[in-house]
Amino acid sequence: MTGQVSHVSLNNGVRMPILGFGVFQIPDAQTQRAVEAALEAGYRLLDTAAAYENERAVGRAIAASGIPREDLFITTKLWVQDYGQDSAKRAFDRSLDRLGLDHLDLYLLHQPYGDYYGSWRALEELNREGRTRAIGVSNFYPDRLADLITHNEIVPAVNQIETHVFFQRADDQKLMRDHGVQHESWGPLAEGGQGFFDNPVLVDIARAHDKSVAQVALRWLVQREVVAIPKSVRSERMAENLDVFDFQLAAEEMARIATLDTGSSHIVDHHDPERVTWLGGVRFDT
Ligand code: NDP
After folding, report:
1. Most buried residue, 13, 67, 137, 171, by most Cβ within 10 Å?
2. How far is the CA of 133 from the centre of ligand 1 (A)?
3. How many distinct helices (H) and strands (E) make up the chain?
4. Whose CA is nearest to atom 4 of ligand 1?
């Protein structure tokens, strides 16, 4: 890798790498190997969740790496079935235990459903007790984010939302900036959908910089100051996705990529009642 991963400062002063490694949909049996390879490639931010059912394997990889704890930034998330002020704290303890850690860097509410108010109060307590250096949310659309901020004490440090060239979230980012919430992207490569890797605009810009489409899309997020956590199980792609700190997209290229926005998700619609009901009811081994 050439070029150093840059960092952002969260609203409580905690520093977070702008690029990390996500482990959604990596089967438990493959996760330890994948995370070891990611750490070897230079990733220091890891993003998991109780609902991914692979926190134990992430923990084993962290332990095996020998990397000092203070050099790592570990995020996990609370699933909806464990929402509520008391159950959230118990679920936090279980996640920490599975990860083999004594504190987290970032703990997120995974979804804006169910008793996310009671859960947020639990996260506020965990943050005040120093058990997680920062707390945040995920999949909060602007209305719910504004409401949560208005009626609680601690402003979320991060909101992790689907963000990629086809769903750019500029208005969401403006609201987050106004409130000091760091924008974090999930699905930064659009999970490979909508012809992502063959998109003519991205292919053209990639050629001009002798970079790949993935690198252009990740660089575009970095230049927008959006934290990104691409997932791959292949070491060569892990290295490729991290190697975005030695080139710069011009304003004209950023403007061309801005034209790719469709303004909506092709992965999950968080306003669809059927999807909301499903997400609220699905159970994991948390
Ligand atoms: P991504 O946009 O990161 O896409 C991952 C896909 O792209 C995989 O199929 C991977 O295949 C492929 N890929 C990765 N790098 C390359 C490359 N350089 N060239 C070609 N193909 C590539 O999708 P994710 O949904 O995984 O999002 C990333 C992370 O965000 C997750 O792992 C998770 O941590 C988080 N997330 C959070 C959600 C939430 O609700 N908060 C929801 C979804 C994700 P392969 O592995 O074979 O390389």
Report:
1. 137
2. 25
3. 11, 10
4. 191
Tens-place pLDDT, residues 239-267? 999 999 999 999 999 999 999 999 999 99
**Domains of the chain by start residue, with CATH:** 7-281 (3.20.20.100)
Tokens of 282: 């699905």
Q: Which of 163, 165, 112 is nearest to 139 (CA)?
A: 112
Provide the β-strand partners of residue 138: 160
CB 184 within 8 A of CB 229: yes
**pLDDT tens, residue by residue, 44-90:** 999 999 999 999 999 999 999 999 999 999 999 999 999 999 999 99
Any ligand 1 atom below 6 A from CB of 235: no
What DSSP element (H or E) covers 73? strand 73-78
Nearest atom, ligand 1, residue 192 CA: 7
pTM: 0.98
Structure tokens at 170: 């500029």
SS3 label, residue 240: helix
Q: Which of 21, 24, 276 to mutate to test the pocket of ligand 1 (most atoms within 8 A of CB)?
A: 24
Q: 199 CB under 6 A from ligand 1?
A: no
Rg of the chain on CA atoms, in Å = 18
How far apart (Å, rounded) are the C-alpha atoms in residues 9 and 236?
29
Which is the closest atom of ligand 1 to the Cα of 47? 34
Cα separation, 243 vs 193, whole angstroms: 22
238: tokens are 């892990």
Catalytic site positions: 52
Helix axes 251-258, 213-223, angle to 10 degrees: 100
